Amino acid sequence: MIIYLDMAFLLNCLTDAAALYVTGRLAGLPLEKKRILAASLLGGTYGALCALPGLGMAASFLPQLLAAAGLVRLAFGRREAFLRRLLLFFMLSCAMAGALVAGVRLMREYKGLAILATLNWRVFFLAGGACFLVLSVVFRGGARHGLAGQLCRCTLTRQGREAGLTALLDTGNTLTDGLSGAPVLTVHWEALETLWTPEEKEALSRLESAGAARCLERLGPGFRLLPYQAVGIRGGLLLCFRADGAVMDGRQLGPVTVALSPTPVSDGGGYAALWGGDDGKEVLRHAA
């Protein structure tokens, strides 16, 4: 059998890039194009190596799993719930690879739909059901909100930098800025990694352990403390800053106060921010 390494490289690049993109979208993570590109190129190189004679062991389960872990780490960095993202990416990659192999076999060997008669439908439905069950359990929160139309894409800008993420439209979130009265966007600080300088990232990495007040001492101007109340918490403080601009599903919101959560705000990894405002008019009215 003739193996074209350039085609193996290209197909693996495309499938890895697609799987990483979908993983990031479903997990509500910011998608950094350079990281996604680097990870897909590395995945394409690994896929091409697996096609070489004598390197068949690289295509076995454990090496493939380790390679997938490396790609997820490269694409999304070191974040919490890493195993969730690895599971999602691995299952997406397997599904895409299976669809690709099935399509090639359909076109080359059977030249039609006769391949459907050769499928073991019991195994097909068992495997599909198992994948659906795993994904629905692990990512049930994000899937539920997504079906309800409560998730939207959000882009924040700060000092010339930009970060994109998925936000949950949470009508029960009544957190407002005490200075302006405008609604506040609550974001897990790691989801805004592209907005931070190295010094700010180092200080914010201690947000959960040291607390907002201690982190504020290590940060430059532009950050302040935001008091809040929640169930079981009579009074607390969140670190916050003023984003230069925010776009929510194409709606320009203008400058928005962003509160930084030390822990993820999603129960299943489907979103990284909470937004209680109705629309951009409310924010702009308070900003004026």
Descriptive notes:
The protein has ten helices and nine strands. Strands 4-5-8-3-9-2-1-6-7 form a nine-stranded mixed β-sheet, sandwiched between helices. Helix content is 48%, strand content 19%. The longest helix is centred in the middle third of the chain and has 29 residues, at 82-110. The chain has helices at 5-27, 33-50, 61-76, 82-110, 121-138, 140-147, 198-204, 207-210, 212-218, 280-287, and strands spanning 151-158, 161-169, 185-188, 223-230, 233-243, 245-248, 251-252, 256-261, 273-275. Strand 1 (151-158) and strand 2 (161-169) form a beta hairpin. By secondary structure, the protein is α+β, with helices and mostly antiparallel strands. Helix 1 (5-27) packs across helix 2 (33-50) and helix 2 (33-50) packs antiparallel against helix 3.
Percent helix: 40-55%
**Terminal-residue CA separation:** 69 Å
Low-confidence stretches: 141-149, 279-288
| Protein structure class | alpha+beta
| Strand order of the biggest β-sheet | 4-5-8-3-9-2-1-6-7
Number of strands: 9
The average pLDDT is 76
Largest sheet composition: 9 strands, mixed
Envelope shape: elongated
Q: What share of residues are in beta strands?
A: 15-25%
Cα radius of gyration in angstroms: 22 Å
Number of helical elements: 10
SSE topology string: HHHHHHEEEHHHEEEEEEH
